[in-house]
Amino acid sequence: MVVVGCGVPKRGMGWYHLTQLLEMEDVTVAGVVEPFFENKTICPSPPPAWTELVASLKEEDVRCTKAVSELPKFSKATLCLIAGRTNDNPALFKGCVDHGAKFIFLEKPGAPSVEKLQEMADYAKANGVKVYLGYNKNVTPYVQKALAKSKSTKGAHVQFVHNNSYDINELPECFSRNTEGMMKNMAIHELALLVSFFGVTVESIAEVKVHKDKALTEALTVWVPGTAMPNAKYITDFSRVSFTVTTKEGVSVSVAANRCGGNVSYALVTDECGKDVAKFEFPDEETQSKVDEKIAADPEMMPYFFVQSDDYLVLKDRVVKSALNGKDAEAVATIETAIEALKLADYFTKELTAATK
User: 254: domain range?
Assistant: First the structure.
């Protein structure tokens, strides 16, 4: 395997994937590609943490480069894990395919637009490359428990609630850093669930009901940090959203997302009378207790690495096994799933924007 887009230790998603890959028995890490820190032209003085990582990887015979083309041409079956910035992913993806990768694990949402992701899917198909996406909620236990409960409940309805713990004063930085918008950045995980398990696509939608109460759905226009008058810039995005979608097959499911909703996300299952049947939280009390201990012991680590560690490991293990045995990875999103999720993101953004005007 080759990790593409590592990022700084304890902060970058690619770096965390790398730490787990180095411990997996079925995996040989053949290289690490870091387009920013290994490019001396744009980053002449990388942070000490990166320099230390490069030195430690060198001791394990793992080479670090700024481009996949600087690694030896892939002669063995190779799986590239791409965790670059969303806008950079299409070029990184093409580079991996051209270098001989036969399997790719691509971090969500994969590309900045449906068109770009479709081009990537077409290129992969033309070159016989299998592509999976890192949608961890497809395998996370609280989602699987909710899906199982809904199947045994008459007239069941599932609502997925995704919360972040930003303070309202932190939203200008959040909106500016995640310019693709809430639906492509935060709620994209839930949209992948809708595609994977409920058959929701733009073509299959019969009705969308936006819950217009400002306590549930709100768009905000905020100042972009670092800009000043007379050239101050502003950005508009959703601080929270809530909607229910029904397909032409009569399947109904709800999604809510709140940037300032707290640390706990959940899936709520109700019955045909609208009565709550079960609520599955993430992280649950036991998990949160363990996470709190790890955060206290290593406060420099991004907290969500600890929260989602098991999910990340399950995803990679299933993708690695798929590469080894030639069978599809169970419940892991494919690039086709990701394309449909991005289409939904564009569709729901328009519906939500219209509802908040």
Answer: 137-300+334-355
Claim to verify: residue 35 and residue 157 sit in the same structural domain: no
49 and 10 in contact (C-beta within 8 Å)? Answer: yes
Query: Tens of pLDDT along 146-163?
Result: 999 999 999 999 999 999
Amino acid residing at 90:
P
Tell which residue, 193, 202, 197, has the closest CA to residue 160: 193
CA dist 158 and 244 (Å) reads 10
How far is the C-alpha of 82 from the C-alpha of 149, rounded, in Å?
A: 34
Of the candidates 124, 3, 15, the one whose C-alpha atom is nearest the C-alpha of residue 65 is 3
pLDDT digit string, tens, across residues 161-197: 999 989 999 999 999 988 889 999 899 999 999 999 9
The answer to whether residues 234 and 221 touch, using CB atoms and an 8 Å cutoff, is yes
Closest Cα to residue 82, out of 307, 346, 339, 316? 316
**Average pLDDT per consecutive 10 residues, the chain (357 residues; last block may be shorter):** 94 94 96 95 93 95 96 95 93 98 95 96 98 95 97 97 93 91 94 97 98 97 93 96 98 97 94 97 88 89 85 96 95 96 97 96
pTM for this predicted structure? 0.91
Q: Are 70 and 118 in a shared domain? A: yes
Same domain? For 143 and 273 the reply is: yes
- Whether 92 and 64 have beta carbons less than 8 Å apart is answered as no
CB 249 within 8 A of CB 199: yes
Q: Which residues contact 347 (CB under 8 A, 6 or more apart)?
A: 202, 205
Q: How far is CA 3 from CA 22, 66, 103, 193, 287, in A?
A: 11, 11, 12, 26, 28
